[in-house]
Structures are given as C-alpha cells and as structure tokens.
Write a structure and sequence with these properties.
Rossmann fold, 6-stranded mixed β-sheet, 4-stranded antiparallel β-sheet, about 280 residues, alpha/beta, single chain
Length: about 280
C-alpha cells in the first residue's frame, strides 16, 4: 500500500430523510479514501502537515503514533467532524470512492451518514433505552415503519455481537449495560444507518481486557463488510486487528505499509524507534 488519505468540514442542517443513495463518481481501483495534501489548523495552530494516504476497502487500517501527533485529527477529517469545531480549517483533498467530501455541494450530514464513527468513550444517549439508542438515527432520518425498525434493531445488534446479551431487555436503560456492552451498543448505533465506512477512535482504551477482546473480535468480523479506520495507542492491538498501519509523528505521516511489514521491517528510523519502544 502506498502513502495516502484525509480532509476538512463545516456546520450541519437538520438530518435529511433517508432515500436512495446518490450516484457516485467511480473510485480509484481498490481505494475507499484517497487523501492528498491534507492540512488542518485549529485557529493559528497547525496540527496536520501535507498528509497523503490511501485507505483500501474492506480492510482495517490502524493509525498509530504518540499522543498529540494528529491521529484523531486525521480520523475526524475523514467524516468532516472538524466542521463542528470553531476555528478549524482544512486544506487538501479527500475523496470517498472518488467523490470529493469537501466539495461545496456536499452535505456534511450525508458524509457522516456514509462514514460512521465510534468514539473513545462510549456515549449511549443516557435517557434512551437500549433499543432506542440503536434506532434513533433511523428515526431522525424519517424511518417510521415499525417492521423495518425492528429488523434493523436485531440485525445491527447481532452485527455488534450484542443481541444475545440484550434481546430480553431491549427496553432497559442503556446505562444499565457494562462499559464494554455500551461501546458495542454505540457500534450498533453507528451500523444501523448502514454506513460504508466505520471510524473508531481508540474504541477499547477505557475497557478491561475481556471487553477489549470482544471489541477486537467484532472489528475482525466487521471488516468483511466495511472499511474500518482505527486510531489506537496500543501497538499490540494494531498488530492483532489491522491489515495496514500508518505511523504519524508531529502532525506528519511518516510511514504506511502492511501491518506485518511495518512492525517487523519498517523503512523509516522514526517508525522503527516507535514500534520498538524507544520513544512514545
């Protein structure tokens, strides 16, 4: 895999009704995201410098690097989350299956429907039941048919490996779940609106080893259907779940390669020093 991938974003209108997916430009062969020359600022502070990266489809790409290197900033560029941050500015080009995500006519709300996100800390809606947390996105997008809502509820909870644990208490409070279950609930919520890509920002960093193992098993299962980009501080986790790994340092992409190659035979001395624990 060659170096490539990222981008920018702005304020959002009310969610549009679900409808047939728009026609999309043809993508470069074998590429989900094509990021070229990505730069990101928050006010006067530049966080990312000229990042170019390609993300392949139906694979897991891990983003690694020390704290403050721009990993999460890069990830949030992929679904225009920075549009919501005052003072954020993005330059460069990011395409999703050939479509420029930062083009003037592109609705950032639709970008986030196509590119789902799971955050570091599980964030179920505290006043909603387990079931309502999963289908809330569908309801906001105009889906009212009860049979479809029930179908998507079960389908996505099964995809998130949570159905068997909650099927008898779907109307229970979402906060009654354990931390690991809450994170899988958030994954189910992201999957319910049928995204094409799933972004994960350190999804297991606050979980115990058993819950972390379940999240990792889930990632390996989901990559059969989705492109997944995951930010992680845990290099062992990156080696276990990812097909490709990109190493960031001080806001720059240093190296990207197949995970096994990057961890066993890195081309750059900075990468070697980081993966062998000499710094970071």
């Amino acid at each position: 895999m060659t170096n490539e991938s990222q981008f920018s974003v702005k304020a959002e209108p009310p969610p549009p009704a679900l409808g047939p997916p728009p026609k999309r430009a043809p993508a470069p062969p074998g590429v989900t995201f094509d990021v070229q020359g990505l730069k990101v600022w928050f006010a006067a502070h530049q966080v990312l410098f000229d990042v170019s990266l390609q993300i392949p489809p139906k694979a897991v790409t891990a983003i690694i690097g020390p704290s403050g290197c721009g990993k999460s900033t890069f990830l949030r560029s992929l679904n225009r989350m920075h549009d919501l941050a005052p003072g954020a500015r993005v330059e460069g080009r990011i395409t999703l299956f050939g479509e420029d995500l930062y083009a003037r006519q592109v609705d950032p709300t639709l970008v986030r429907r196509r590119v789902g996100m799971v955050f570091q800390k599980s964030n179920p809606f505290p006043t909603m039941s387990i079931a309502d947390n999963v289908i809330v996105g569908l309801k906001l997008n105009g889906v009212r048919q009860k049979s479809l809502l029930r179908e998507r509820l079960e389908q996505t909870l099964r995809m998130a490996a949570l159905w068997d644990e909650v099927k008898d208490r779907l109307h229970a409070h979402a906060l009654s779940l354990s931390g690991g279950q809450q994170q899988r609930l958030c994954i189910a919520r992201a999957l319910a609106i049928e995204p094409e890509v799933l972004l994960m920002d350190e999804p297991a960093s606050a979980l115990d080893p058993l819950a972390t193992a379940k999240i990792e098993e889930l990632i390996l299962e989901l990559r059969k259907q989705f492109t997944i980009v995951i930010v992680t501080h845990n290099m062992q986790q990156a080696s276990r779940v990812s097909d490709f790994t990109a190493f960031f340092y001080l806001g720059r992409l240093v190296e990207v390669d197949q995970t096994k190659k990057l961890f066993t035979n890195p081309k750059d001395k900075q990468t070697e020093d980081y993966v062998t624990g000499r710094f970071g």
